[in-house]
Amino acid sequence: MLLKKNIPISYVFGKIKLEIALLAIYSVAVYVAHTYLNFPGVSIPIAIPSILGTIISLLLAFRSNQAYDRWWEARTLWGAIVNDSRSFARQVLTFVDNSYDDEDKRVLKERMIKRQMAWCYSLSCHLRGQNAHYCVSKYITEEEKQSIDNMNHVPLALMDQHGNDLRLLMRMGWINEYQQVAMDETLTRFSNAMGGCERIKNTVFPVTYSFYVHILVLLFVLMLPFSLIELFGVFQVPLVVAISSSFFLIEKMAIHLQDPFENKPTDTPTTAISYKIEQDLKQLLRDESPKESEPNRPVDKSTIYYIL
Amino acid sequence: MLLKKNIPISYVFGKIKLEIALLAIYSVAVYVAHTYLNFPGVSIPIAIPSILGTIISLLLAFRSNQAYDRWWEARTLWGAIVNDSRSFARQVLTFVDNSYDDEDKRVLKERMIKRQMAWCYSLSCHLRGQNAHYCVSKYITEEEKQSIDNMNHVPLALMDQHGNDLRLLMRMGWINEYQQVAMDETLTRFSNAMGGCERIKNTVFPVTYSFYVHILVLLFVLMLPFSLIELFGVFQVPLVVAISSSFFLIEKMAIHLQDPFENKPTDTPTTAISYKIEQDLKQLLRDESPKESEPNRPVDKSTIYYIL
Amino acid sequence: MLLKKNIPISYVFGKIKLEIALLAIYSVAVYVAHTYLNFPGVSIPIAIPSILGTIISLLLAFRSNQAYDRWWEARTLWGAIVNDSRSFARQVLTFVDNSYDDEDKRVLKERMIKRQMAWCYSLSCHLRGQNAHYCVSKYITEEEKQSIDNMNHVPLALMDQHGNDLRLLMRMGWINEYQQVAMDETLTRFSNAMGGCERIKNTVFPVTYSFYVHILVLLFVLMLPFSLIELFGVFQVPLVVAISSSFFLIEKMAIHLQDPFENKPTDTPTTAISYKIEQDLKQLLRDESPKESEPNRPVDKSTIYYIL
Amino acid sequence: MLLKKNIPISYVFGKIKLEIALLAIYSVAVYVAHTYLNFPGVSIPIAIPSILGTIISLLLAFRSNQAYDRWWEARTLWGAIVNDSRSFARQVLTFVDNSYDDEDKRVLKERMIKRQMAWCYSLSCHLRGQNAHYCVSKYITEEEKQSIDNMNHVPLALMDQHGNDLRLLMRMGWINEYQQVAMDETLTRFSNAMGGCERIKNTVFPVTYSFYVHILVLLFVLMLPFSLIELFGVFQVPLVVAISSSFFLIEKMAIHLQDPFENKPTDTPTTAISYKIEQDLKQLLRDESPKESEPNRPVDKSTIYYIL
Amino acid sequence: MLLKKNIPISYVFGKIKLEIALLAIYSVAVYVAHTYLNFPGVSIPIAIPSILGTIISLLLAFRSNQAYDRWWEARTLWGAIVNDSRSFARQVLTFVDNSYDDEDKRVLKERMIKRQMAWCYSLSCHLRGQNAHYCVSKYITEEEKQSIDNMNHVPLALMDQHGNDLRLLMRMGWINEYQQVAMDETLTRFSNAMGGCERIKNTVFPVTYSFYVHILVLLFVLMLPFSLIELFGVFQVPLVVAISSSFFLIEKMAIHLQDPFENKPTDTPTTAISYKIEQDLKQLLRDESPKESEPNRPVDKSTIYYIL
Description:
Five copies of one chain form a homopentamer.
Chain A: H1 2-5, H2 9-14, H3 17-35, H4 47-95, H5 103-128, H6 132-135, H7 142-147, H8 154-171, H9 177-202, H10 207-232, H11 236-258, H12 270-284, H13 297-305
Helix pairs in contact in A: 3-10, 3-11, 4-5, 4-9, 4-10, 4-11, 4-12, 5-8, 5-12, 8-9, 10-11, 12-13
Main location (chains A, B, C, D, E): membrane
Organism (chains A, B, C, D, E): Mucilaginibacter paludis DSM 18603
Transmembrane segments (chains A, B, C, D, E): 43-62, 209-226, 232-250
């Protein structure tokens, strides 16, 4: 609850500053033309814009529903990445029995878990169109870095390395064949989550629908002052601005929600989630991570604050 | 059905006391200004607020739908925790064959099942932002307590201990490799349920939507008395209060439903569900639990009563 | 299709007899007061109740949607119980190879399949708050009856016995470890279905929503005669009754659908489904069941007839 | 796209011939009474039927949504049967290694795949209340026919035989235990699809909802001519017929969609799908099926043409 | 975001050129008849078309919802094909241990992965009714080509070959029995995705619904000029065109979305997705594909641009 109270009103309205300004000018102009210039104008019965308003509400509600579903699916996919990363780490740590503290085993386990962190960051960068090679450099070894150097699809290459390490674990006899298949299923789930994110990223929301709704909203806004001027006089200006900007706001929200991987402050907080996964996996590694990485946390917070 | 009849009306309206009071004062003021002070006022045609009402109903219905979906998903996740806790206990009890009543086996089985109870309580505390270390102290051994002492994420640490015990069971030869993987899948489901709850907890419902609906409701409420005063005279006061408070009520409900882990009397009854899991697992342990823990039950009941 | 034609109209309206009577009296009273007593009354423009009607329709439609979803989920869970019971019986019969007609094997297989019937009946009773111990007595042995005697949660205890029998099958070498895990997965699905039903049973549908809709319907009904009296005169009485009782009917339907385990003639036909499962499992057991159990069938039929 | 153009308009309207005729007579009668007989009549303001129309549209839209969901679920279940039948055949063919062309293996494999065809046809007949024994006779051996002779539930009995054959394969050492369980999972999916279809078949769509909507439509239709007569004169007759028959059409569609297994030309094309499965499995068997079975295909086509 | 800005307005309107032209002519004719020819005409109160508009919006919104669901399901199925193709390749590469660089193993692995590419292209062609034999020729060996030569259902035949290769891998001892079953599960998922696409392709969207909505839209369009002429005079022409073409646009969109495999520029980009899978699998094969295949990429881009 606290989170919401902290959202500055200015942020919300900052998104539609321009629209509000134009709207205010337009409705003042209508008022002036009507009152002082005795411009006859077309007096539109209130029924037309209000019923247009009902239609727009209906379409807008359906549209935000679909945009919300895309956004929530993206969030759920990243939630699944959190879950599966933890499960994967648990499998790595408990399937490979290291009671005698074998250094080789310890190194391999750590390498796999760190690569999982790298995979999360690389997927985050990949989806946002950033250089995924750069994102993962902190978490993987030099050798791994070289082998993915000329790959286009970094997360896919890292998944492939996971698979190779599973084969290695199997060949060393550190896991049995049944455990290999169980861990391969976890990799399949990662693959599904990755593909799901790419599907949302690459599939454009049907454009005509948005376009049509936008035209109706404009039509509505243009008519509104002519309907309200007789009834409210100068008070129509704030009314027009309030009602119209509501429609614009909700339209903007749908546009933001429908593309959740566009590297805007309002999208799915993939970096923050990756950071959280890193923390959790480090806890599981019992790797007392230096507290100096804490300061990164605010990134997380601010991202959540401003989810539109 | 009985449950519902017991909900005191006062509880339902207690949520919107302030709004009702302000509404009454406002509409009386409008009545007085209009009737006795001969305040000309703006007479708003009934069409405007009533169509605004249709729009609000539509948006509110969609919004409660989405809030309801979050709430129901949270409930379903906790339902899955109940199911999986029972399945996990059944697996512990039936996979480990203890026909000769081996004390070591008995102790380990009991430890795992009690840790499962601890996990449920710790997740409940973790989600509500309470001290999870304190919640679990009744159910786990001193040794376990120490090992999770400097962990931030208690449920995750307990899951890790579950994994370690699975490895132990495997090394002792008490379960075979298939059974280890089958039980590991149950742990994966716990991990998914935990991650799902955290996802709902940490993802803010799109704020603009709520904000927009709230503004429309206020606009509607401010206009309503001016529309009804001509038709109904003084009777507009109860009408305004009744219609407006309906909108406020339904808005409040959506706000409560959309954040199901906020430690309010109306959220998902995680403590009661954890208690139920404890009872069920104790039955499976054939551990005739002392009846003095019964008195805790009312917590459960009262929580259910007041689900808004 | 036949089923529907058989539903007596009287049954449908029996649900709202009282409401219809009160409505008729009220609208006649309004007519009399208006026409003969020259009671001035408040003449309400038709716009108000008709737009209120639109709002109510919208909310009612959404609400029946959610209630329908609960009901359909309950039905689907019981459908899953049918499927899994058949699958479980098939697994018992085909995994345990009894080519040499070993009496011990035959007895154990029959015991497990009969216990599955008992589990279905016990879950049905448990959900409806009936004495589950009594429901299962026909299907399980004396020994089993004693062991569940002091258990509160009978279906859970029966599931536990299933698990024990799986362990027994495994220890006897009648199934292999892989088959044990596969059958344990079936038990997990039973556990999930059971938990899902309990979740629906124990989670109250958000009360405020129902309450709010109910208040709006009452408001609508109270206003309606005053709006129609001028236009229709005495004909307003049947119109008021017809329109209002539609709203009441649909509200009643939602209330019935949202609580599908309340032991009313209209809820999920758990007894009939359990009986169907019994028949199917008996066919699989090639146990030519005596035809004298057929007469129970009508319970099934009548239950289905009157699903509201 | 071609498919749709071929639907004769007469077919669509054939469904509501009677309603259209009655409507035309009724509205002509209203016109005659109003115009020539100077029947005063009740002039109903246009607001009432048009708002009633909005309410009906809303409820009808929700209802067709739910009916559509049932129909689509039925279609999806049969889609799953197609998929799983192919998967099952693939498993039979590739798990049982027949490199040395063992006649016994070949016969058993063919028997199982043909029984799968039989199962699809038998489920189709079972759901439509036809004699399932007759449907399967072409595909199974005499021996199998006898063993299911006194079974009520033919598809269930065939599934049981599948299970027995799996056990046989296992006992012969032709598949390993792991493969047996994997194929058993496929049988479980068949069992789930079968149970899902039965659930849809046996669960009546809530009747009150349909009933309520139907009453509202009638009320609307009866009022409509009185509202339009003043505005449109004799032109009200085609208008009344057009608008009303739209409502009737959409209502009819919902009724057809909600019961997808009623052996009408418009339901789920289970026979056509079974035929398709037969063709696909024959291709997998490399059994060059005689082209004389092709003529059955038109059944498929015509069924699809007339999906309402 | 960029993508959308690039969609030429002309493309969007190109779809409804004819409708717009007819509409303009019709409304001009109404204007001329009304104004200059003193054609009395029927003056329709604004209430009728505007409420008709609300009804149409509602039905259209529901319909586009269902069409969108079909389209999104088709997209999700192809997303699953991407995921599973990657998982399958990973399984082929990591389950078969080729540390000593055995040429036979290398060839077989490459053959299976290339056949997977072929399967994607063949499914794409099969769904669009193109010659699937032609589509796959680039990816499979001569021997494979011959064996599928007289098959109708190419993707199904390729799946069967995958199954045969799995058996071969198993017989050679290159994978163990668990791994065979795990890879068979991947084949089952391909089978499910293929069946799901065929289901969407072969199931006609309920025609009556579309038909009904279309009739209402026409009715609305025919009435609109008569309602607006009095209020707006000549300005009714652009208004009629704007509002009506919005309805036509949204109707067109629903028609396109509901049939996502019709080989139109606006359907699911199956070729582009197949190409992407090819690239990803080639990366996994570490097969530095020649850059001259890049020029094919634009096909992908343009397809995505014009998703309506």
